[in-house]
Design a protein that fits this description.
Strand order of the largest sheet of chain A: 7-6-5-9-10
Strand content of chain A: 15-25%
Oligomer: homodimer
Order of helices and strands of chain A: EEHHEEEHHEEHHHHEEHEEH
Number of strands of chain A: 11
Shape of chain A: globular
CATH topology of the largest domain in chain A: D-amino Acid Aminotransferase, Chain A, domain 1
Largest interface: A-B, 26 and 26 residues
Number of domains of chain A: 2
CATH architecture of the largest domain in chain A: 2-Layer Sandwich
């Protein structure tokens, strides 16, 4: 039984009779192959990537599993259409908070047409892509059983400034994200961004690979960052996850590192590590203050 | 007594009645302040940089010393003009081989005018700037007492391809650079690119700073790489040197890392480390072969 993905935060949605991806209950994600050649390019990437022995195992885990392609009824009712069959990343999370971060200070590639380059460049300049080396392309924050998800609309996302990005990276790991931007407590930062299995360590592992790999250049590709806020709130071990997605514009590296992706990744790493170190500082401050007053804070970060 | 610099490999030259920098015998370099505001921006950068306590000492050594500005007779005979007074980097080398590498996959900055951006973008796409994240903007290779320097003309430099860049990075550290591109022996790679005071270590030290610093964004800035081939040939300790130059387009970092410079720097690091590891491999091969034949190569790299 195919249905519209519940947790898709960016890209074309399969609603209102439009063409978009579908999911099933067994954890698979069906992405329609777009007719302009992009779909076939993405399929070709997955085929090349899965058989490339130069990609180390510890890097493969950052990519969705691909199960080939399959003919399916398209979501827009246009009949049978080839779909890329991928792992449904969100399916392993109960109430996932998700950020889709498009990496790189340019989304175009040298071989593209002038028209395509100008179109991308305009959007790159309008968003934080040029200034930050990445832009948030979509997100949802789980705020709790009652309020559900905060999922800003496409226009709002596209107008995010540097200030907004910084604030969202804080809200993303805050227990009080629904109250407002200014007072985000970042109380989940140590367990989601920090720690040996946290987002920062995963980003650093990816960075080390990007400093060396010259096989692919990942243009206009996104990092999906996911975690389950409820499991963190309940004290169970969180499993923050990173996956690279959207490979329709990947080109051969030809012996050159992907300096565009790497630069943006380093910029994101700096932002995430700043949220983390701010949260550590404020939890030390909390400790000092609670020691003075004789009470202990209950966020468990007072070491 | 002011004169035209002997070792200037890029930028405007003070010849044929044109405006350009001058040097004296005491090791100072006089750069005319251009009237379009660039000169004043560069002076302002040096003033801000020299008094900024956030810049660590081990990073300052990668920047030329600035002695302020001075009114001097311009090289084009137009009368008195303000000049930036800088350390003449080449003056401490007897027969310097020099590469001027403009770092970054874009030379423009978000705040610039549309016209300026299009002009830069066009040149960035025409050269290796977009593809490699850096371009060689000028160079001279010392080839020996008889042949003197190889210094390709501006047009030749601007037409360098990825292949040319790779080949020049090899020729730069070869004892047989004059023979031709294909057979570069890279025999100086271990002592110039390698070692604890070599170019690679210096680039890595700079990289670590760029992963963290959010004070400046260095647009259209160059890395000057210098060494004295004669002193290496004679067996004395070489002092390969790196200096950042050209700060007319530096803008405030505003809390964001310079991902454009960092990405290009990482790409250059990859190229340099490949020349170095190739040269190590071939010297091991030499060793094995000379052991077989009972003779030892004399390049001193046979460990």
């Amino acid at each position: 039984m195919l249905k519209v993905p519940e947790h898709q935060v960016a890209g074309h949605l399969a609603i209102d009779g439009k063409l978009g991806p579908l999911v099933d209950d067994s954890g698979r994600f069906y992405k329609p192959l777009q007719g302009d050649g992009r779909g076939n390019k993405e399929l070709a990437f997955y085929e090349s990537f899965s058989s490339d022995t130069r990609v180390p195992d510890h890097i493969r885990k950052y990519f969705p599993v691909c199960y080939g392609s399959q003919l399916l009824e398209a979501s827009n009712g246009s009949g049978l259409l080839h779909h890329l069959v991928l792992q449904d990343i969100a399916s392993s999370h109960r109430n996932p908070s998700i950020m889709d971060v498009k990496i790189g200070s340019r989304t175009w590639y040298p071989e593209a047409s002038d028209n395509y380059i100008q179109k991308c460049l305009e959007k790159d300049r309008r968003t934080t892509t040029v200034s930050l080396g990445f832009r948030i392309a979509g997100l949802q924050l789980y705020e709790g059983k009652e309020s559900g998800y905060w999922r800003p609309g496409r226009k709002e996302v596209q107008s995010f400034t540097v200030y907004n990005v910084r604030s969202i990276l804080r809200r993303f790991v805050s227990s009080n994200s629904s109250i407002g931007n200014e007072n985000s407590d970042c109380s989940f930062a140590p367990s989601i961004y920090g720690g040996s299995a946290g987002i920062l360590e995963q980003l650093l592992e990816l960075k080390a690979w990007f400093e060396d790999q010259t096989i692919y250049h990942f243009h206009s590709c996104s990092l999906l960052i996911l975690f389950d806020k409820e499991s963190v709130s309940k004290g169970s071990t969180p499993v923050p996850e990173i996956k690279l997605i959207d490979f329709a514009h990947v080109v051969e590296g030809k012996g050159v590192i992907d300096h565009n992706f790497l630069g943006g990744l380093c910029s994101l790493i700096k932002f995430v590590s700043e949220v983390l170190s701010d949260s550590k500082e404020s939890s030390i401050k909390d400790c000092v203050e609670s020691e003075k007053s004789g009470i202990c804070t209950d966020n468990g970060n007072c070491q």
